[in-house]
Every structure is written in C-alpha cells, then in structure tokens.
Design goal:
With 246 residues, the protein is of the alpha/beta class. The chain is built from eight helices and seven strands. The chain has one domain (8-239): 3-Layer(aba) Sandwich (Rossmann fold). Belongs to the short-chain dehydrogenases/reductases (SDR) family.
Length: 246
C-alpha cells in the first residue's frame, strides 16, 4: 500500500512515540515527510534513519512556532497534503499545587501552539488536504492529578470542531486522534514507580487488558490523513482499547 506517494505531509512532534511511528509509515508509503522535534539527539537520529525526510527543530512552546514552520516550508504553493499537529506535553499536579507557570506551559504547548501553527500553515494547505489533531483520553478520564492536561486536550478538541467548519469550504478535513494508554515515554516526567502504578491503574480499566503501541495509534492517524477518509470531517477517533467506551 502506498497511500502517500507524491504527498507532502508535515507531522509535528515526530521524533518520538506516535509521531515517530507516523513519520516512518508515511515515508514507507511513498510520502515526502517533514517533521519537528526539540531534542537534538532524537533529531540527529531520525535524520540518519530517514535521510529523505526533512527533520526540523521546532519548540512548540515558543510564540513563533508557527512562523518558524512557515519559514521552513517557504512560499505557499506546492503545499501540504496533510498536517498532523501532534506535538504535546504532559505533567501532573494535585489541585493545590497548580501554579501559573505550570498552567501556562502546558497551555502553550498543547493549545496555543496548535492555534499558531495552523494559522501560519493554513496558506500552505492544498485543497482537499487533511488536518489531524492529537488529543488524549485524558480529556474524559477525570484524573484528579491531570486536570490541567485534561483541560488542554478538551480545549483543542473544541477548537478542532470549529476548524473543521472553517476549512471545509476548501475541502480541507479536520479530525481528532484520541489515544489512550499507548506505550511511549510520554509520561517520562513521572518517576519509575509512579509511572508503573499509573499505567497499571489505567490498564486495569481497559477492556482489551493491555496498553496500545505507537504504531496502532499512528495507523488511525494515517487513515485520517489519507484519501481513504475523504468523507470524514469533524470526528474524534478513539484508540484506547475501549477505555472510554465511546
């Protein structure tokens, strides 16, 4: 299968986890893939692994994250066939320990960045392009220590519904990927014992009884990016083993 032959696809946050699985898959299916990261070692590693891919350093927490990506792409025209806004950041804190800095950083990466990136990249989207936004089942789980993270993901899902309407006149689709407990190092901010306990608790509530893997979540994102999903717009796709049962 080569759904992305001659297609230009940009994936933010593509040097690790679900994004990296997507980068590899798009490249393997004939696409020209561009991706971003902020970790120099991961950027260098991916450049060596996929020399035909374009791997750019971009910090989603920066106020110029969107303008920087637009500069990398150059002048509009011959633009993007797919845009997957996947970069994200997570941390936890009890209600009493939430600070302005804690709140602002997570909002900057998970919400503001997507707004700024889409604003800057919209002129680069070809008609009939597809946009995918990465959310999380955290938005519906009700975790007592992930309230800020949940709020950021709820906000971006709400924005995506508006974007789906706003871009529809250009035949550009916008859909949301909602991963559950996927086995990446996204929870690396936790110490090992906390992470193990957290994962064990989540898995105990997953009907399939296991964590997902990055490739499984990326496969759904790539379906949404592809022409196979040409009549799918404004939807949320849960990849969570039945955790949310929606």
């Amino acid at each position: 299968m080569a759904r992305f032959t001659d297609k230009r696809i940009l994936i933010t946050g593509g040097t690790n986890g679900i994004g990296l699985a997507g980068v590899r898959r798009v490249s393997g299916e004939g696409g020209l893939v561009m991706t971003t990261g902020s970790n120099p070692e991961r950027i260098d590693s991916l450049r060596q692994e996929l020399p035909d891919a374009q791997v750019w350093r971009n910090d989603a927490s920066d106020a110029d994250t969107g303008e920087d990506l637009a500069r990398q792409l150059g002048e509009p025209g011959g633009g993007l066939d797919g845009l997957w806004l996947n970069a994200g950041y997570a941390d936890i804190a009890p209600v009493e320990e939430v600070t302005a800095e804690f709140f602002d950083r997570m909002m900057a990466v998970n919400v503001r960045a997507a707004f700024l990136q889409l604003a800057a990249l919209s002129p680069h989207l070809n008609d009939r392009a597809s946009v995918v936004i990465t959310s999380s089942t955290g938005s519906v789980e009700g975790s007592p220590v992930a309230t800020v993270y949940a709020a950021t993901k709820g906000a971006i899902e709400s924005a995506a519904r508006g974007w789906a309407t706003a871009l529809a006149p250009r035949n550009i689709r916008v859909n949301v990927l909602v991963p559950g407990n996927v086995d990446t190092d996204f929870r690396r901010f936790m110490d090992a014992d906390t992470r193990e306990a957290f994962n064990r608790n989540v898995i105990s509530r997953v009907p399939l009884g296991r964590a997902g893997i990055s490739e499984e979540a990326a496969a759904v994102a790539l379906f949404l990016l592809s022409d196979d999903a040409a009549y799918v717009n404004g939807s949320r796709y849960f990849v969570d083993g039945g955790l949310s049962k929606r």
